[in-house]
């Protein structure tokens, strides 16, 4: 039995005020008993978030991390630094970083390995562009992204990775994948992992991301291979994010 995970990726948004509002709202919120919740705020808010989320079910995530432990890398942040602030999850391979910052599979892999070695749970994001979907290449693209990473991990490391399927055309567009479209790709990811190990595939936590909101979450989360959500825009509104969490029971 997999525990659902609802993760909020704030991207380059948020404020101290928003951090505090989440802390207050989740302190006494009625949530499903078996549910993991994580918020990925921008780096400057991590410390305030750690304090505000203390005593709530919200765990902390980082939006990226550098592959190195320390050194001359101006502007970067390492996994060991994030761990000092209680960060438990790290996003790697988000399409915004693949596209805007030219992060390729090799770099995504290095960042994912850094998250694992810092003791964090990496959330590996994969997904196809609209052009790739229209060309009928969705499964090729997504399974290549997953496969590149999995081939470089030890069996034990594979069990510690969460995978988020985020079709690029659904991110920030208000155009959500249908539950059937998402389910098809996510079932394929699980089947791919079963090629390594059936138990690994059964335990794999798979998130859907891309315009998930309070209205469409329940239907998406009802799909057999969707174990949770990676929420962007709707994670910036306390009530909407809370409603998504409540629909994950
Ligand atoms: P939206 O929910 O705003 O489409 O963003 C999804 C996303 O990119 C989460 O990582």
Outline the fold blueprint.
Elements: E1 5-9, H1 16-27, E2 36-40, H2 46-52, E3 58-62, H3 79-84, E4 87-92, H4 95-100, H5 105-117, E5 121-126, H6 130-134, H7 138-150, H8 155-158, E6 162-165, H9 179-194, H10 198-203, E7 206-209, H11 217-221, E8 228-231, H12 238-246
Parallel strand pairs: 1-2, 1-8, 2-3, 3-4, 4-5, 5-6, 6-7, 7-8
Helix pairs in contact: 7-9
1,3-dihydroxyacetonephosphate (13P) is lined by residues 9, 94, 166, 171-172, 209-212, 230-234.
Describe the structure.
This protein is α/β, with parallel strands linked by helices and 249 residues long. 41% of the residues lie in helices and 16% in strands. The model has no long low-confidence stretch (mean pLDDT 97). Bound molecules: 1,3-dihydroxyacetonephosphate (13P).
Shape: globular
Helix content: 40-55%
Class of secondary structure makeup:
alpha/beta
Which strand order do you get reading across the main beta sheet? Answer: 1-2-3-4-5-6-7-8
Q: Rg to the nearest angstrom?
A: 17 Å
Regions with pLDDT < 50 over 5+ consecutive residues? Answer: none
The span between the termini is 13 Å
Oligomeric organization of the protein chains = single chain
Tell me the count of domains: 1
Number of helices: 12
| Secondary-structure element pattern, one letter each | EHEHEHEHHEHHHEHHEHEH
Main sheet characteristics: 8 strands, parallel, barrel
CATH topology, by name, is TIM Barrel
CATH class descriptor: Alpha Beta
Quote the beta fraction: 15-25%
- Mean pLDDT, all residues: 97
Task: Give the cofactors and ligands.
Answer: 1,3-dihydroxyacetonephosphate
How many E strands? 8
CATH architecture: Alpha-Beta Barrel
Question: What is the CATH superfamily classification?
Answer: Aldolase class I
């Amino acid at each position: 039995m997999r525990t659902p995970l609802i993760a909020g990726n704030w991207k380059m948004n948020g404020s101290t005020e928003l951090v505090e509002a989440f802390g207050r709202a989740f302190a006494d919120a009625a949530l499903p008993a078996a549910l993991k919740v994580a918020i990925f705020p921008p780096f400057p808010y991590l410390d305030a978030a750690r304090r505000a989320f203390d005593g709530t079910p919200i765990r902390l995530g980082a939006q990226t991390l550098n592959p190195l432990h320390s050194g001359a890398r101006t502007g970067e942040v390492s996994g060991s630094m994030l761990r000092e602030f209680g960060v438990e999850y790290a996003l790697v391979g988000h399409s915004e970083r693949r596209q805007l910052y030219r992060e390729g599979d090799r770099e995504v892999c290095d960042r994912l390995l850094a998250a694992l070695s810092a003791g964090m749970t990496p959330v590996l994001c994969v997904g196809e562009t609209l052009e790739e979907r229209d060309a009928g290449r969705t499964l090729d693209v997504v399974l290549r992204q997953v496969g590149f990473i999995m081939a470089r991990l030890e069996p034990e490391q594979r069990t510690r990775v969460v995978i988020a399927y985020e079709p690029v055309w659904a991110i920030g567009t208000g155009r959500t994948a249908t539950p059937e479209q998402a389910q098809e790709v996510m079932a394929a990811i699980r089947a791919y992992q079963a090629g390594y190990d059936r138990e690994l595939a059964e335990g794999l936590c798979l998130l859907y991301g891309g315009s998930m909101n309070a209205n469409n979450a329940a239907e998406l989360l009802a799909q057999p291979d969707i174990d949770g959500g990676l929420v962007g825009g709707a994670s910036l509104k306390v009530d909407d994010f809370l409603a998504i969490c409540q629909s994950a029971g």
